[in-house]
Amino acid sequence: MKVQRLSAPRPQNIVMLLTDKRPVIRALSCELLGWRLDRSASEMMANLAKHDSSPHVRQACEVALLKIRRKELVSAANSGP
For domain 14-78, which CATH number applies: 1.25.10.10, 3.40.50.720, 3.20.20.30, 3.40.50.10190? Predict the structure, then answer.
């Protein structure tokens, strides 16, 4: 039996899932982008955090955005004099 190595999903594929019709997929996509500290879809996640019909998606996007923002704040603090 040959073992295959799985590669990480590409960020653009994860971002595409933010528009999925299923709330669970949108929420998981937000969570994954947050764990990856990927800010490529920050505006889209902010929009979902405000306007998505699912409270689970709104919360997942809020948490993801907080993780991403925290990383930016730490980076800015470390680059100071």
Answer: 1.25.10.10
